[in-house]
């Protein structure tokens, strides 16, 4: 099983499934990945359903039937598309799937062809063992960017595929960070921050740079608004997920964490802080600014974009405060997806934690808030509680966060092998 996971990951990486974000320039790599997965599962007797909104953007949905048709079903989802990669920037060919220095190298190695490969390998092993789950398990390989041809398309046009599904696992969660020689913390995604991309437009007077005053200058007005936004300190949001994190992380460490000094407490934990801190509060990051065409001409309009990531449960109040920070005279257009928050305790999380400890006795699972956005945004609209659980036992000091969309993306072979065993153990309890 572990060997298959490595080989499947390499083969998936070798299929260039780059998603440029433009249907005209995105090829058929996703369909080729899904077809490869379909052939591997068909060898075990599992036949999937194929759904394609656009040629080349294939979605595969496979249901493993359980012994109790009345039991709530579980969804396991993963996407096969990847962001672009420039060969000139990489140490190896980003679509080679090369194994070097104990790593599988290539675009998608951690985002997220590793999880897709682990899932396929674990399912094949379960089928070899003659395992029949108690509840139906639904597996989805789709595409991610906005989900127009993947998760969102399936939810909107084929919701019957997810009949009975109440819980789901997917990306960004289940990876380990070593705190001590005898303690590795595995972060389990129980919540996901909201996404609100704001496009700001300021309008003013067009004229000569020596004449138009700053109170009529669109660039000055928009710059002042961005300064207020970027300097604002968003407060800690102690919702159910963060409260559970504080409590369970303290239990794992053997000492309570001081909630009044949470940032300092996290700083003392080294690399763990970089993964946990973004989930504690809302963030607003200006990302683009466009205005003008000549040094001595004041433009009549200025535009900017702000990437806002909203603490779970605060979507509505965030917008009110954001508009106050902007001030008058700024137009705003939003592209958004609301925050998600699933229960931070229960049988599913207990099964994740038990599977981790069974494979890695030094491992402890704790909940955390994911700062990125996943296909869970789409699946949650069906009332599904979504969790991040793509298990990997990572080596100490491995820059896991830097691998996402990064140059020389790679996943440790041993992490993939251990993750496959954890996932197999978890699925065998469902």
UniProtKB/TrEMBL annotation:
Q: What are the Peptidase M20 dimerisation domain coordinates in residue numbering?
A: 190-325
**What does the UniProt keyword field contain?**
Hydrolase, Metal-binding, Zinc
List, separated by semicolons, the cofactors it needs: Zn(2+)
Q: According to its UniProt record, which protein family does this protein belong to?
A: Belongs to the peptidase M20A family.
Q: Which InterPro entries match?
A: ArgE/DapE_CS, Bact_exopeptidase_dim_dom, Peptidase_M20, Peptidase_M20_dimer, Peptidase_M20A
GO molecular function terms noted in the UniProt entry: hydrolase activity; metal ion binding
Q: What is this protein called?
A: M20/M25/M40 family metallo-hydrolase
């Amino acid at each position: 099983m572990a060997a298959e996971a490595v080989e499947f990951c390499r083969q998936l990486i070798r299929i260039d499934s780059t998603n440029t974000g433009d249907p005209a320039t995105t090829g058929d790599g996703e369909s080729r990945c899904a077809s490869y997965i379909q052939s591997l599962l068909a060898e075990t007797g599992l036949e999937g359903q194929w759904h394609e909104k656009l040629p080349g953007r294939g979605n595969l949905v496979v249901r493993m039937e359980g012994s109790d048709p009345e039991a709530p079903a579980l969804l396991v989802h993963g996407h096969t598309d990847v962001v672009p990669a420039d060969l000139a920037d990489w140490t190896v060919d980003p679509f080679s799937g090369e194994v070097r220095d104990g790593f599988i190298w290539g675009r998608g190695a951690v985002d997220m062809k590793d999880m897709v490969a682990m899932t396929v390998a674990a399912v094949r092993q379960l089928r070899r063992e003659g395992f029949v789950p108690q509840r139906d398990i639904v597996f989805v390989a789709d595409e991610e960017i906005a989900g127009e041809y993947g998760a969102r398309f399936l939810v909107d046009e084929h919701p019957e595929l997810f009949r009975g599904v109440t819980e789901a696992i997917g990306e960004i969660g289940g990876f380990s960070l070593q705190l001590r020689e005898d303690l590795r913390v595995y972060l389990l995604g129980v919540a996901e921050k909201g996404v609100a991309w704001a496009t700001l437009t300021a309008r003013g007077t067009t004229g000569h740079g020596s004449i138009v005053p700053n109170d009529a200058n669109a660039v000055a007005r928009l710059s002042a608004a961005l300064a207020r936004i970027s300097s604002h300190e968003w407060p800690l949001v102690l919702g159910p997920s963060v409260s559970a994190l504080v409590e369970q992380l303290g239990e794992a460490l053997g000492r309570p964490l001081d909630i009044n000094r949470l940032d300092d407490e996290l700083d003392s934990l080294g690399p763990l802080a970089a993964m946990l801190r973004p989930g504690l509060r809302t963030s607003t990051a200006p990302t683009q600014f466009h205005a003008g065409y000549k040094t001595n001409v004041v433009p009549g309009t200025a535009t900017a974009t702000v990437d806002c990531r909203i603490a779970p449960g605060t979507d509505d109040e965030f917008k009110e405060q954001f508009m106050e920070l902007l001030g008058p005279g700024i137009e705003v257009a939003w592209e958004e997806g609301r925050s998600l928050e699933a229960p931070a305790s229960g049988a599913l999380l207990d099964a994740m934690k038990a599977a981790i400890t069974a494979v890695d006795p030094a491992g402890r699972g704790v909940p955390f808030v994911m700062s990125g956005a996943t296909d869970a945004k789409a699946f949650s609209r069906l009332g599904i509680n979504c969790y991040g659980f793509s298990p990997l036992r990572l080596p100490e000091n491995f820059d896991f966060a830097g691998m996402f969309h990064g140059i020389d993306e790679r996943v440790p072979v041993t992490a993939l092998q251990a993750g496959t065993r954890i996932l197999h153990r978890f699925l065998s309890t469902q």
